[in-house]
Amino acid sequence: MALSKNRLVVSCPTEEQNLIKELVALSTTEQIRKIRELPVSFEEKKHVRTQAMAFKSSGQSHHFSSLRDFSQNMSLLIRRFGYSIKSVSQSLQLWRGIMKEIGGKFGSSVLNYFVLLKWLLLFNIFSFLVNFGFITIPLLVSDLSPNVSPNVSFRGLELLTGAGYFNYTVMYYGSYSNETFRGLVDYDMQLAYFFTISVYMVLCGLVLIFSMASSFKKNYALADAASNSAWQLLCSWDFSITNEKAVNQRKNNLRIQLKESLSEKAHRERQTTSEQLKQYGIYFGSWLLSTGLAVGCGASVFYLCQYEDEQAEDTETWSALKEAETLLVPFVVSLMNMVIPLFFSLFNKFEQYSSQRKQIYALLFRNVLLRISILGVLCYYWMNTVPQKFTCWEPMVGQALYRLVIVDFIFLMLGSLFGEFLSNVIGTKIQPRLGVPEFDVARNVLEIIYAQTLAWIGIYFSPLLPVIQILKFFILFYLKKVSLTHNCQPPRRSGRAAQMKTIFIFLLFIPFFAGALSIVAYTAWSLTPSEHCGPFRGLNNTFSVIGEWIDDVNKLSSTQWVVWIYQNVIRSEIFYFLITLIILVLIYIFWQLIQGRKELIVLLRKQIVNEGKDKSFLLEKLQNLQKSCPEVNKKQKKRTTHTSRRSAERSSGSQSNSNAVVQVLLARQQQEEEERRNASGVSVPSDISTSDAMMQAMLARQKAERQDENAYEATDGHPPPLDAVAQSLAARQRAEETDGYWSTTHFNRSNPVYSSIIQVRQSAERDREDDSHDATSPVSSAMIQVMQARQKAEEEERNQRIYPPGQNAASPGSSALIQAMLARQQAQNEYDDGY
């Protein structure tokens, strides 16, 4: 690594040198960000980073102060230490390897169940630590021995019923004292019990709200019916799957989903009005039956509770049989929760929903309705009947919740061990066409949500109920993992795992946690606590403990601000009205923002579609234009090639054209000198002299060359109008008028010189016609030279007619004509070389 700067400069290309020098001048964080943004492969990025580090570590490239190097090294060490701590914490995470194994074999949809189960387990661990630390430990420190009646002993049945011996322990509300323990600090059990339960419920609500919002923000995507098939094809692959069998099964499931989606769309398009009415009738009947089942289960639980109330006696005189009879209600409730969802699944098969999402949502709503109806009836019975029946009613509600938790756990174990196991045996041994049973994610998730709801309701009546919930979830995790591995397969039609996770958290919060919080709040606000047990004995309601605490605080002058807040904020209806109004305004603002973003998304989608149509239209037009004009494309290509060649040969061609012009001028000057020597005294007017016409022709030729060069640079290769040639023709016409002034006879058409001039002129005209589309500056030069040569020949003919034959005036004209023809030939050769 200890490379010098010179070695780096020699070994690295110029661009890499500049990049490395730029990276060296940046900080470490900026270097990492810059290297990550490079559009190169990982190996090249690694090479650039190595070179930059070597360049920075070399002695000649060390431009930074020792303080800055020290700070950078310290930041690097701190960052590496943070990475190592993070790695260790990840390795110590609960069930990390098992989670990866489940996700690799069964996908993210099944993994969501175990993630939620682990999350709820952490909820209960936190609840146990809080309750045990702030409520149970102070009580145990003050009084280690439970106040157990001499007639009560532990019989083992208490593990199922929660009654008997457990009724006199710290498991339930009735065993906690209302005293204030004196010590280094005064510890009020009433305030400790109230604030511990309240803070725990508030924290659970906040965690659920933030988790639901975060999951909705990251994972939930608004599904478009038109893009459902595209989503299934492009975005539905589960990259957490690593098992080959699971990969092949996922491919088959994806193919089946696409076929079903296409067939469902085609079926909806072919449905007639009568078929749609029939389908709606099936929906109505299924929902009517499912709702009737839920209401019937709630009614049956209510009458069963009334029967149990009639048989109820004082708990101290319960026999073993009487204590076992208390398991009747939780047994019936758990049996309903296990059997009735099977009927709901049967309804879904008859309904034939057009999409899997609708089917899952319908099943979830029916199961939620069933459990809410049962829990609603039980809570009504606990809040209204039990307080009137028993003098110490809070422990009775705690025992009922304990029995529900225990019996529900037993049914969950039986369903996993026998239900899924027997289904696997039947599907593989007896009826192979049934196949291996699927792991029903929705049903299993609702089961653990229902169990957690029981723990939230019972935390007020049984502060140590989270201990039972921790054991239950811990055992259930391994039980479900073993059953999943040996008895189940991934669901054939798995929905979007991210959306399902968001929906599960929503269900956990809105109907269940909100319901449990309402029950606890109603108990603390409205119901009168027992007079002979519990920390709130002798109070009108649980919330009255805050009033008594404020009265004690009011006696201290340094805490008057607490009293003012309580009287003017907490007990003020205006404060809650303003809070509610602000929340409603914020909800409305965010709702408007959501609607605006939805409209923007629709407009952007339309813009993308329109841009695609515009591109297709332009491509179609371009293809049609290329097909309809093949000759024009070839000529344009030829002109482009000729233009490039002409620009490359312009320097040499201009020198040849200059030589030709010089030769023509010399020939013309020699002819004029001969005319002056042979003149017979007749003066030639200057305004009609041939010399002026020739000079104008030569100036016109030079102008034509300049215009030709400019035209080829500004146009697409089309030949420019030969304005200079027109001027040359005008000059020639003036010369012909001059010839008419001096001549008195007609031209001799049989003159061989004239014939040769005519042939040269015709050849030039033919060349001009052949190259009319690709004319260049040599064409103009050749035409002007031809016109000059023809003018010289005509003047020589006039001299031969005017002067006597003995003066021999034709000889100079012949030499001039030959030179002009040579110049014209040279220009023609240059013109040919241009192509």
Describe the structure.
This protein is mainly α and 835 residues long. Among the domains are: 12-57; 107-149 and 165-540, no CATH class. Helices cover 76% and strands 0% of the residues. The chain is built from 29 helices and two strands. The protein has a two-stranded antiparallel sheet. The longest helix is centred in the C-terminal third of the chain and has 56 residues, at 573-628. It is elongated, with a radius of gyration of 51 Å. Residues 1-12, 59-64, 650-662, 680-693, 711-728, 735-758, 771-780 and 802-814 have low confidence and may be disordered.
Q: Short summary of the structure?
A:
The protein is an all-alpha fold and 835 residues long. Among the domains are: 12-57; 107-149 and 165-540, no CATH class. Helix content is 76%, strand content 0%.
